[in-house]
Amino acid sequence: MRKTERHFVTGPNSLWHVYKTVPFWKVAKNFVVIQIARYTPFLPMKNWLYKTFLGMKIGEHSSFALMVMLDVMFPEKIKVGKNSVIGYNTTILAHEYLIEEYRLGEVVIGDRVMIGANSTILPGIAIGDGAIVSAATLVHKDVPAGAFVGGNPMKVIYTAEQMAERQLESAAEQAAIESL
Which Pfam families does this entry report, sorted A to Z (predicted)? Predict the structure, then answer.
């Protein structure tokens, strides 16, 4: 289950209440910073922009590929651990506006996480250390540490234990080939 705070609204759908939930100038500033960073090829500069102007927590050596789209309204709710890679054109959301409510939730991405291109991460998600998210995955629930997940809807393809077994088998096969 995703960890989100629910806020109910009356009258028109919740998106019509957007500037009651987040200041216009915050959204405008965030939009400009995110757009600059999306096209910036310099990884340290991207991380500096995100930390300095958006209030994000980003671990050392984490990388945001070209065109990553962060939540424009609540980017401060996104945390990325050390040495992680966020793939091309991935979207990370910390909010969702529905008809009668809007929801907010932190997105926590662990250390050494690989997120494939064109993935979407919904609010209230935690991705454990060492996890791998396949390209074009809709991350709609937490990802266990070390797991390999993919698809829409997302499914666990390999657990951490199964991944370790596969790596041992692969290493043994490689050793056998090299000994020939």
Answer: Hexapep_2
Q: What CATH number has the domain bearing residue 89? A: 2.160.10.10
Q: Which ranges of 2-159 would DSSP assign to H, the alpha helix?
A: 18-21, 24-39, 43-54
Profile the chain (180 residues) by mean pLDDT over runs of 10 residues.
94 93 96 97 97 98 98 98 98 97 98 98 98 98 97 94 88 86
pTM for the whole structure: 0.93
* Number of domain units in the chain: 1
Burial class (CB in 10 A: 0-12, 13-18, 19+), 84: buried
The CA–CA distances, whole Å, from 121 to 96, 109, 126, 137, 152 equal 11, 10, 10, 8, 11
Residue 72 CA to residue 107 CA, distance in Å, equals 14
Beta-bridge partners for 165? none
